[in-house]
């Protein structure tokens, strides 16, 4: 079903229409400096499309909560735990409820974590609930920054991974990203590059004008036009709007934001007793700020006597544990199960560690894995070991711990490939093919896999030889074992990626 929504007026005087179904498939990027009318544009888009598609708004300033009065959006206060937000997002997809995630009042670090948890819950919804959703993210440069800022690296990593999932992989799950940013230079390029529709508003900085012109396929000398755009005027391009850059003016909206642009007002008349008004506390302030008297200083002799006095032994009932004990064996088994589920996906070998780590954290929360989650370094190590596909019998032997020790001298990104070959040597299995090793490294290039084997040999970790049938054998001098002959040109073997110990 083709549905077109009216965004305003084009330069020709005709209505500026957006094909909603095409927009859901191709996503939208809105850019404009502060005051250019981005929020007004998003509000017009949301109001016009509200009867046709479920909507989810990531709202860092609380401007879009007014949609609930006219269009029935449910406001989700983000001052909750990440687990709660993830579960709420799953129920929102299940029941197809339009919602506004209100992030107002949170620090930037908390906003990034809350948005990542919420988007993760929507992304990980069950396949039966993959209905189309218009996901609007205002001030997207906060959640997908191009460079590290004052926020923690972990918050930036999980937020950027969630935004990348939304824009890169969300289409197949029914999630259509609409992101708005003040500056393209502050937005991560891999997030911005996934949009096929663009609405560019007033821009003053040269670097942002040049990027806007490049995205619209315009010449650099035409970029000056972005400085002259009026408030609420944008240049549109994309399969859902226009095949050539087309200036449009956004139409009126039915609801209003809680925050408005500042208006000039005359100053009040200065009263005669202005000094008393400034420096004398009012009656409400006097009741709220009751100052405590400063404690009297303790004499030095009394203080030394108190410090030297022996402390009484705590009573047995006072030695209660604040936190329940964690069953480490159960925790390790749960982590192994989560890693197994991740690696059963045939595309897992070609995804970045950041995306896999985000998937790992979400699955751990769903399974309620006790204790602190693995940090990124620990996750990479466990993932490398899991990719080797070692069973319990091999892991409990004397040789495998030495193989793990040897792998620690290698960079994180090649440990999985090294351990896969080591596992074949310990169990005397055929040497993995180049295609299988390439998957373990996260690439489709078999030539790169062969270069890494040469790299291992140059570090005196392995010795490579070929038998009379032109099959490859890899020996590990430190382990005292070698692989069985294997065809290096054989097809990719998917079994090692799901052959976790059961």
From TrEMBL:
Alphabetically ordered keywords of this record: ATP-binding, Helicase, Hydrolase, Nucleotide-binding
Keyword Cytoplasm: no
Pfam hit, one: DUF87
The organism's place on the tree of life at top rank: Bacteria
Domain annotation Helicase HerA central: ranges: 11-73
Gene3D superfamilies: P-loop containing nucleotide triphosphate hydrolases
GO molecular-function terms, A-Z: helicase activity
Protein name: Helicase HerA domain-containing protein
Species annotation: Aquamicrobium segne
Organism placement in taxonomy: Bacteria, Pseudomonadati, Pseudomonadota, Alphaproteobacteria, Hyphomicrobiales
